[in-house]
Amino acid sequence: MRISARADYAVRAVLELAVREGDGPMKAEEIAAVQDIPHKFLEGILGDLRRAGIVGSRRGGGGGYRLARAAAAITVADVIRAVDGPIVSVRGERPTGLSYTGTAQPLLPLWIALRANVRRILEGVTLADLAADALPEPVRALAAEPGAWENP
């Protein structure tokens, strides 16, 4: 599984909004500067997030972007789906839409299990968790495993 630049930037942008939730709207230029995200690229991402109901926007001098709902109600999975579509796909298809025959048959349950694990993690972490630097215990335990930080 790969996390696209678009998904990484989206999570970083909404995390910035979550951390500053009580400070009022933030301009895209400010988010881009603080998170070192190309401004034009971020504008497209924020548009996708707005259409998905994750951020809201207001025009004008006091305008900018804010979370459309509480940070505790937005998961990392919500953000990634808003900008990239399905979390796990195989050749651009959802695993449930695939079928294999012969010796490849065991692949389907493998892809389904992979999707279930990725979803369990990304749907179990909210923007509030990240903003508070308080990842859920199962996520912290996985990240603490010695092999988690190695590149085979």
Short description:
The chain has helices at 5-19, 28-35, 39-51, 76-84, 107-123, 127-131, 137-144, and strands at residues 55-58, 64-67.
Structure description:
The protein is mainly alpha-helical. The protein has 7 helices and 2 strands; from the N terminus they run αααββαααα. Helix 1 packs across helix 2, helix 1 crosses helix 3 and helix 1 crosses helix 4 (about 75-85). The longest helix has 17 residues, at about 105-125. It is globular, with a radius of gyration of 18 Å. The two termini are about 15 Å apart. About 20% of the residues are buried.
SSE layout:
Blueprint: H1 5-19, H2 28-35, H3 39-51, E1 55-58, E2 64-67, H4 76-84, H5 107-123, H6 127-131, H7 137-144
Antiparallel strand pairs: 1-2
Portion of residues within helices: 40-55%
Q: Can you list the strand order of the major beta sheet?
A: 1-2
| Rounded radius of gyration (Å) | 18 Å
Number of strands: 2
Low-confidence stretches: none
Largest sheet: 2 strands, antiparallel
Order of helices and strands: HHHEEHHHH
Distance between the termini: 15 Å
How much is the average pLDDT?
Answer: 93
| Structural class by secondary-structure content | mainly alpha
Question: Which percent band covers the strand fraction?
Answer: 5-15%
Shape: globular
Instruction: Give the count of helical stretches.
Output: 7
Kindly report the oligomeric state of this protein. Answer: single chain
